[in-house]
Amino acid sequence: MYLTNKQEAILKGEEGWAKKKCLEIIVALGEIYGADRLIPVASTQISGVSYKTLGEYGLQWVESLAPAKVVVPSTLNPAGMDLCLWSEMGVPEDFAAKQRRVIRAYERLGIITLCSCTPYLAGFAPRFGEHVAWSESSAVCFVNSFLGARTNREGGPSALASAITGLTANYGLHIDENRKPTAIVEVSAKLAGLSDYSALGYLLGKMVQQDIPYLRGLSSLDVDEAKALSAAAAASGNLALFHAEGFTPESKVGVVEVGELLHVDERDVKGVYDELSTIRSGKIDLVAIGCPHTSIAELEAAAALLKGKKVSPATKLWFFTSLPVKVLAERLGFVDVIEEAGGRVFTDCCMIVAPLERMGFTTMAVNSAKAALYAPTASKVDVVFTTLEKCIDIALEGRLI
Ligand code: F3S
Predict the structure, then answer these.
(1) CA of 252 to the centre of ligand 1 (A)
(2) Residue 348, burial from CB neighbour count under 10 angstroms (0-12, 13-18, 19+)
(3) 18 Cβ below 6 A of ligand 1
(4) How many H-runs (helices) and E-runs (strands) does the chain carry?
(5) What whole-number distance in Å separates Cα of residue 234 and Cα of residue 224?
């Protein structure tokens, strides 16, 4: 792999230990994947923020990088708690202390502590064609597919290494040739809401493990629909890029010498709700909305469903979003309506990376296929996957209905 004199100097340690270690990570990845050179990135988004997923060694690694500073705008994935309202969530004090240390360590590196998997809804959206190094898989799939930016599915350490060096290795989805669709997926299902898009994403991820799908037949793909689809597709498979006819910016890049033609119909989509639900009746401890973090439109829709109603005392109704979206939702009155009904809107965290297993929850309802897929193992809860409307009904009743 070609390296400039400056990059060689960094590898010799001439710009400090942290930058040397970070560049070593990027060069090693480049060599494994056959990159020809390193390229600059315009931004990074870094996972490995919840202490639950980062752990002690991860925390020590982040702390060891100071006094290095990031050289491009960089934001964080969700942490394990709302950084202000953690005590109200019931997050244990020992976890909170570790989590605060993690955030401080990232802050010292100059990272913007926007802790969200949807930074593109909060002022950090890469442009078409821009090379970036993002690591949250749902955001990777969204920015590649819906915005036409270019990133591989980075791990937390490699995204952090890119933040500190401003570089990534030129391979994978940074290269034109590797972004072309390789399988057509005909979608005949009529998709009725975001949870249907999430179910479609789940199917897509499972179907096209190594391919880049080209979706035909969608009647709509707005920002929230693309967000739901991307998250589930990246969770059930390795999907980092899809094209959707008429909706995504690179969908005209040549439809394909296609190897495979796949189909998704209504029955397939409806089947996902059953497949991912581990319970069919009984009390629900937590109704959790916001995987990926909710947009302003989702909070508006939830507020409309909750207006003048009361959440059952047997259940908690929690929304997860980014801090900027919550501030806007407060200004627009949506948070007041949700809270008057007994719900809560938390920021900086989510139902999967919070330590739910230590917070007394055993059953959860979600409108996200990704959350439903991860929750039983990540949070040790039984789960029901359903629509937003049914989630709200469950919260009002306190049980599955
Ligand atoms: Fe985001 Fe957490 Fe879901 S990081 S995509 S809300 S699992």
Answers:
(1) 30
(2) buried
(3) no
(4) 15, 14
(5) 15
Q: Which residues have C-beta within 8 Å of that of residue 124, sequence separation ≥ 6?
A: 43, 45, 73, 75, 112, 114
Q: What is the pLDDT of residues 318-361, one digit of tens each?
A: 999 999 999 999 999 999 999 999 999 999 999 999 999 999 99
Predicted confidence (pLDDT) per residue in 223-266, tens digit: 999 999 999 999 999 999 999 999 999 987 655 655 667 899 99
Ligand 1 centroid, distance to 166 Cα (angstroms) = 25
Mutation to probe ligand 1, out of 49, 81, 293 (largest number of atoms < 8 A from CB): 293
Q: Residues, the chain, total?
A: 401
Residue 72 — φ and ψ, nearest 5°? -135, 155
Question: Which pair of tokens denotes residue 133?
Answer: 């190094």
Question: Whose Cα sits closest to atom 6 in ligand 1?
Answer: 291
139 lines ligand 1 (CB under 6 A): no
